[in-house]
Design brief:
elongated; 186 residues
Length: 186
């Protein structure tokens, strides 16, 4: 009889342990999908580069236009800097295998329906910040999306002081926002 009780206790204990493990597995894989996401699954594929601050990505099985938060790159009509900014963005994306991780701030979309995101390359560097630091974009913040504003300010100061890219002697003659006001509907 004692042997039978011992065997039942063992079976009950195994059942309880199995139930606990099954519950944890369920919570991790169904209830909290962020816990099951592997690094390779967090990256999205870049489908197109429109200019120095706008791309499109494939996410959730569909193509979405993405505006990089915190920066304003020269427009394509601002020759040669519009072309240079786009090319620099393409080069950075190519170095990352055309894969980026999107990070959102408080507002997820702009008035045109584009996703607003900070983009991280596969090596972890913040793409938005690199565009400013390398002298291919200016700081452009629209609250409440100001998560990296201090880092962006420092990057712009560094680029300006170093006379890099658009800050060089032959750099950009007018800011992208001023250019858009002078050339509406471009």
């Amino acid at each position: 009889m004692n042997r039978r009780k011992s065997k039942l206790r063992t079976i009950n204990l195994i059942s309880v342990v199995f139930f606990i493990l099954a519950s944890v597995f369920y919570l991790m894989h169904e209830k909290y999908p962020v816990l099951r996401t592997q690094a390779s699954e967090t990256y999205v594929t870049v489908a197109a580069v429109y200019d120095g601050d706008t791309i499109s990505v494939i996410t959730g099985g569909k193509r979405e236009k993405v505006r990089l938060i915190g920066i304003d790159a020269p427009e394509t009509g601002q020759k040669p800097w519009g072309h240079h900014a786009r090319k620099h963005l393409e080069d950075l994306l190519q170095s990352s295998g055309w894969k980026v991780e999107m990070e959102f701030d408080l507002e997820k979309r702009d008035q045109y329906g584009r996703l607003l995101a900070y983009l991280r390359l596969t090596d972890g560097r913040l793409l938005n910040l690199l565009m400013v630091k390398d002298g291919y974009a200016v700081l452009y913040t629209i609250p409440p999306n100001v998560k990296y504003v201090n880092e962006m300010k420092d990057a712009q100061s560094e680029a300006r002081e170093g006379k890099v890219g658009i800050w060089s002697a032959i750099g950009l003659k007018e800011r992208p926002g001023d250019y858009r006001r002078e050339h509406p509907g471009m």
